[in-house]
User: Fold this.
Amino acid sequence: MATIEGTFERSSSLKVAIVVARFNDLITNKLLSGCLDCLSRHGIDISESSSQLDIAWVPGSFELPIISQELARKLKYDVVITLGAVIRGDTPHFDVVIAEASKGIATVSRETGVPIIFGVLTTDTMQQALERAGIKNNLGWSYALQAIEMGSLMKALS
Ligand code: INI
Assistant:
């Protein structure tokens, strides 16, 4: 019997791309800093000159899938992390944006075979988003951990 799972010990060799939405950047910048902190503590070089990390910015969460797809198709990254914040507020736009982002990211991941981490916060209020982006907990940190696990799991399978 084989037990196949991701590890956190050899993560320092992973190549990672992060795609971040500028919409609600008060939140997405906090997610990004949590994410970078976790990657760095797991041995991934997050410096400006890093050859194992690239960061792309998109206007909003709706655009996360297409840029994730471009990055995944380069076959240069073990894992792609998407970061966005979709806040319900009073607009029905919320449902459209979150549906397209989630479906698009899942499709790109399956079609390219590159794990794409769904790091899009969906909340009813800005307060809830702030709580999940650092006031109580920074989910950016968790998204990075999930990326390390999935990136190393795919490597183990290849
Ligand atoms: N983009 C987000 O990332 N979060 C939101 O809450 C949001 N709302 O509510 O409108 C949002 N809209 C912009 C969208 O992602 C696109 O950038 C835009 O429609 C252009 O395609």
